[in-house]
Amino acid sequence: MLQKRHVYVPAFDGLRACLILWVVIIHVFLKVTPPGRLHYLIFSGWTTVDCFFALSGFLITWILAEELDRDGTINLPRFYTNRFFRLSPAYISAIAFTSLGQYLSHKPIIPILWILPVYLTYTLNIFAANRLLYNPLPLNQAWSLSIEEQFYFCWPWLLRKLGLRNGLRFAIGAVIAIAIYRSGLYTWLNWGHFWVPSNFSVDRIYECTDTRIDSIFAGCALCLLVRRQSLQPFWERLKAWRPLPTVGVLYPAFCVVLIAWRGDPSLGSWRAATLGYTIVSTSMAVLVVSLYLQPQGWPSRLLSWKPLVFVGKISYGLYLFHMAIRGIAFRQLHMMDGKLEPLWKTALVFLFVWSASVAVSALHYYLVEQRFMAIRSRFKFAKRRSGPVTVSAEAQGAAADAEPGKAVATG
Question: Is the pTM value of this prediction over 0.85?
């Protein structure tokens, strides 16, 4: 029997650090470097979003499933309160920071006021994907956070209603159904030029919830499969399989090369926009389960390096703040998207953006975010009930809260 206990997995934070590093590299280098192998290698980093999605689905579902096993239900007010106090401080700070920066740069204030309700309702991805509203803020990366928030809103009550067994069926069905639906939508939007996607289809399919949430459900399905009692012998054998850590790294790398490293715009190509997103996200789920099952494997040991773990803990703030800091650096050096720059100059800008983003995110995490996380414990309905004296092994593995930096591991 695969034993589960409440153990923090530092490798998950290390993985986040690597992912956010690649995101910053993309946003600094991509549009100021000439086409070529380096450009295409950098651009393939759009797949980091699918890894973030799969990991998020895995961890959130673990927390919800543990509570459902232990209490027989899911305390929705507690879940939403935890999510609000964990995610809102950095998000609101980023919106305020970027809005103030635009105002001080003498940009028109009306477009900023128009876009604020879109950010605050987490619907940016829908408006951006359908090109319904001009976005004046350097916070476009919030489209992925919008998808995650929409997932957080729906999945807890859905899982509570369906239960774990039917929830697993729903998650697997959603992954399959969305892949089929997305393939059909791509074909319809690019009828007559299937191999050359239109710019609208690239944005519509890449950023909209109905075409990307399967990446999160891939993580949900993985979590529920790992917790499935009848599959414990399989997970035990997989846990003892020595090549698993290597396979867990090489298989996602192969899928990224297959789907993403094919030039511009690989993120919206027929390979990606049909079955590619699903292939990449399920391969990322393989990486997640390999780290989960074998925390002593070589990838876990590398990802557990303390500086990486530290960056992973503040990665949410990094994701939100780095584009505004990039904008400051670009503006001071008269750099702009589409204008090619010497590699050395871009590398120096990257070092500044990375260092400043880490510093700002760390300060915000310790001075603001942790204070809000302490406040949430004051709400009575946000406190977890004490479990019964005897608790099944299935009910002992989730983190004490729903922080993205917290996770569980096998014992």
Answer: yes
